[in-house]
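Sorry, explain these tokens?

___
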Amino acid sequence: MSAEHAVVADVLVIIGTGAMGLSVARRMGAGRVIVLADIDDHLLTDVAEGLITDGHRVLTKTVDVTLRDSVADLAAFAADAGRVLHVVHTAGLSPSQASAEAILAVDLLGVALVLDEFEQVIAPGGSGVVIASMAAYIIPAPDAAVEVQLATTPADELLSLPACIDASTSGQLAYPFAKRANLIRVAAAAKSWGRRGARINSISPGIISTAMGRLELDSENGQMMRAMVKSSGSGRLGTPDDIGAAAELLLGPLAAFITGIDLLVDGGVIAALRTEGFEQAD
């Protein structure tokens, strides 16, 4: 086959190689080049080896999502691998894992940088998903002026906003604030991604049985989280595959007219909180 007739591979980018990212890779990676990215080289290697053993084509790239140059290098690496069709951003830190400053850097700035840099390489007809959190729905909505700032401030200046500085006083505040900001940044990015013929949405998982989720369940907030689950319509923890299925929907052709929205995938926790409060866990 001549070079001019060579088939260009479709690329699925997974940023963050935890259980949710792995679920999406397994659901959507067949026949595509999977570009896996994470800051943890050992985890990156382990996850890639598992996918390669199962027959997937995998490339790996170390990335620090808090650094624009690192994210830009990842975007260029993915574009060199083929047609960047799907981008799934799952990297994040929780209050039990990191300081408020680190949470804001990874969960807020990191998302903004990924939206910026992958907008430059996403293929026409492509789509992206950012993993946010149901925590975004638990705190009050920011003032309208703050929402505008979070939507429009250049990514490199975000952490200097007064609202971000205020949120940096506590990890318990920084986490839901960052996730609320994710929803706002995704909504704002929908128009610019749309100019490339691409879509971008977010998913807000509820309490999911991932390593991060189990760590939070074992924290001082665990009893409250179990009470939320008990009072929800589903009455159970979520699984990484629940999130993988939602991501597959939003990334695929059935969601061709859906962009700039957040899909709450929480088993009914927020619905219960809004209508009934929640029962105490056993």
